[in-house]
Specification:
Length: 312
């Protein structure tokens, strides 16, 4: 297997492009894909201050490093979710990455600041943990971006993530979600600008990038993610991709080119919103969903993640 560019020994094959790359030219390929995504979707400029939502996993660390390598000003934001050893390990990876590169990492501990963690919220609300987790992270990401004076919030969603979410939304024709499934969400109504620079790279490619660059990332999946529908959607799409390379890319970018605009009017999330009486965030009622959650779990005894997993 030879590198498409230099004909030297290749370390990775990318079947949808019918290409193989050596380490040097694979790194260049990753940078070019991120540059193209930023350019095509007008994500940010070199004058912007970016805040990268960091989990300690491969995608968030890869996108942070790629943005810095490309000359963008980017700080990191880590939210401690209180998911036992998993959260401890993810925090360690995020801190080590930032310290090694002399980058700024902002940390928010959910229990210390807001009085609850994700296992406890899941137990109290009797809903799947991903629901409380997603709600909490979205609120804290938005709040930190705006309060910190950042121009844009960056997440590490890759092509696999976006194709899987799109697949699920299309299966159920959830048009309100299709209306905002874009690589860029503009700022407005109290929300910050949000971008996804990794949409042209797959999960496998970001993992390979981290290995080649020597980025030590958290490999383990969240112990509370069992039953997450998007994992099943990823498996289904992976099988399609195996049989027909390029399927995921064609599906996702075809949607962006041909159909995304048809659903823009179905996105009610940012229209006619007031302000939460408690925190001031955008809200459709007197209290935003995050403050309703914090009120509901206030004073609850912490629930160890191991106990919650056993009860499920």
């Amino acid at each position: 297997m030879k590198c498409r560019v230099c004909r030297g020994p290749a370390v990775i094959d990318i079947r949808r492009h019918n290409a193989n790359f050596c380490p040097e030219h694979f790194e260049r390929y990753c940078r070019q894909q991120v540059e193209r995504a930023i350019s095509d979707f007008e994500m940010l400029s070199l004058d912007d201050r970016a805040l990268v939502a960091v989990s300690g996993g491969k995608d968030s660390l890869a996108v942070w490093e790629l943005l810095v390598e490309l000359g963008y000003r980017a700080d990191g934001l880590y939210v401690g979710l209180g998911i036992g050893d998993y959260s401890d390990a993810s925090a360690s990876h995020a801190r080590a990455f930032a310290e090694h590169r002399s980058l700024e990492l902002i940390e928010i501990d959910l229990r210390r600041v807001h009085g609850y963690d994700i296992p406890t919220a899941a137990a109290v609300t009797r809903r799947v943990p991903c629901s409380a987790c997603g709600l909490s992270k979205r609120h804290l990401f938005d709040e930190a971006t705006i309060d910190g004076g950042y121009d844009v919030l960056v997440t590490g969603h890759n092509l696999d993530d976006e194709a899987a979410v799109l697949y699920g939304n299309v299966l159920r024709w959830q048009t309100e979600y299709l209306g905002r499934q874009l690589p860029v969400l503009a700022a407005g109504s109290g929300f910050p600008r949000k971008i996804k620079p990794l949409v042209r790279l797959t999960e496998r490619e970001t993992a390979a990038y981290c290995v080649i660059r020597g980025i030590d990332y958290l490999v383990e999946e969240c112990p509370m993610a069992g039953g997450n529908k998007h994992l099943a959607y990823k498996e289904a799409l992976n099988e399609m991709e195996r049989r027909s390379p390029g399927t995921k890319s064609d599906f996702y970018f075809g949607f962006l080119r041909r159909a995304a605009g048809r659903f823009a009017s179905d996105d009610p999330e940012r229209s006619d919103l007031g302000r939460c009486l408690s925190c001031g965030a955008p809200a459709a009622a007197e209290l935003c969903a995050f403050c309703r959650l914090t009120d509901r779990v206030a004073g609850a005894e912490p629930v160890p993640v191991e106990l919650l997993r056993t009860s499920r």
